[in-house]
Recover the amino acids of this structure.
């Protein structure tokens, strides 16, 4: 292999070459790397070879069965990723300067929020930001955070707090959890259920990986519930979870935004509301700290708060509802998303979705 441009100024690598090398470093497979960046396999191989020629070092160790990074490749892959990220930030900054709320916005949403809040988000974008190309990705929290850090996603809609360095949270509202049970359950219809009731109830939870499961477990621990029985039932979504409740397998906790959607069609179910202060969760937008579009995202968060308050209660956040309950409000900081408060009349609804297990 040639060792760079020995007689004069070294040749500068191109962005295309860097993207090809980073893709190979990530996948360690030429075919998969080529597919990931939309390049043919011969073109990818040629780009990596050209980069090695320009840098004067071997980056990839090629064998008939596998691809490995050389020691130099391991070191330079980190630099190459940093260069591509910096170029991405440059393009993002230029786009933001040209005009806010235009171009592509890649929004990541957790499954326990998407079915209940996306209609509001899509309506807001359609009516107020018609030039914005909104692209929605529904994934679990860990995958969304990885996508945000890697630049694959621009903004997240999820439950907080996250406690993740480099992510700034823009709170939207707090919402109570509601207890869902069979129609003839003795707690059905009550509006003063003590948290301590959770100590003995056969509670169905979501699968591992969903933050809603973790929040429910936090609530149970605060109520004095000890570790329960091993998981014997699982489900892939809140809709299935609610059907398990209707079938008599136990009770579950739903965010208020999910109640109407998930229980309104089933007469075999009843709901009950906790005594104040009711257990609740916080829903927020998450963005990269220092994002070039941070002012745009903050304005979007404010517009979403307003749109959600008007849609659900006919008022802007912080005002009183006609029925006497408080409308959802921009939440004050709290140490745990499972214990923040959201005042509102027990009949109102609020947000979430995903998998089951009796504990």
């Amino acid at each position: 292999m040639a060792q760079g441009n020995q007689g004069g100024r070294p040749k500068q690598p191109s962005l295309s070459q860097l993207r090809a090398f980073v893709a190979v470093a990530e996948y360690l497979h030429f075919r998969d790397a080529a597919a990931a960046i939309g390049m043919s396999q011969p073109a990818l191989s040629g780009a990596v070879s050209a980069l090695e020629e320009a840098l004067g070092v071997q980056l990839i160790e090629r064998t008939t069965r596998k691809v490995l990074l050389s020691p130099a490749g391991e070191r330079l892959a980190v630099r190459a990723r940093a260069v591509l990220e910096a170029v991405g930030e440059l393009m993002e900054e230029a786009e933001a300067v040209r005009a806010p709320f235009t171009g592509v916005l890649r929004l990541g949403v957790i499954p326990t929020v998407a079915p209940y809040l996306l209609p509001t988000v899509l309506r807001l974008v359609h009516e107020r930001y018609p030039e914005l190309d909104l692209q929605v990705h529904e994934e679990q929290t860990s995958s969304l955070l990885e996508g945000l850090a890697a630049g694959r996603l621009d903004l997240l809609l999820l439950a907080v707090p996250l406690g993740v360095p480099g992510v700034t949270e823009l709170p939207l509202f707090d919402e109570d959890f509601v207890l869902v049970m069979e129609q003839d359950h003795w707690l059905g219809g009550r509006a003063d259920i003590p948290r301590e009731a959770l100590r003995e109830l056969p509670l169905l939870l979501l699968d591992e990986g969903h933050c809603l499961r973790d929040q429910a477990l936090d609530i149970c621990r605060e109520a004095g519930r000890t570790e329960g029985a091993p998981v014997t039932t699982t489900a892939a979504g809140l809709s299935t979870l609610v059907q398990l409740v209707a079938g008599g397998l136990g009770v579950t906790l739903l965010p208020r935004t999910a109640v109407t959607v998930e229980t309104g069609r089933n007469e075999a179910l009843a709901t009950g509301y906790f005594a104040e202060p009711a257990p609740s969760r916080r829903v927020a937008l998450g963005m990269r700290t220092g994002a070039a579009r941070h002012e745009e995202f903050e304005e979007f968060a404010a517009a979403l708060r307003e749109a959600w308050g008007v849609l659900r209660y006919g008022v802007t956040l912080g005002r009183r509802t006609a029925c006497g309950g408080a409308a959802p409000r921009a939440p004050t900081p709290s140490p745990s998303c499972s214990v923040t408060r959201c005042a509102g009349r027990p009949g109102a609804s609020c947000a979430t979705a995903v998998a089951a297990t009796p504990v």
Confidence is low (pLDDT under 50) at residues 314-330, 332-359. The chain has ten helices and ten strands. The CA atoms of residues 310 and 316 lie 5 Å apart. Strands lie at 60-62, 67-69, 103-109, 132-138, 155-160, 167-182, 203-204, 251-255, 269-273, 280-288.
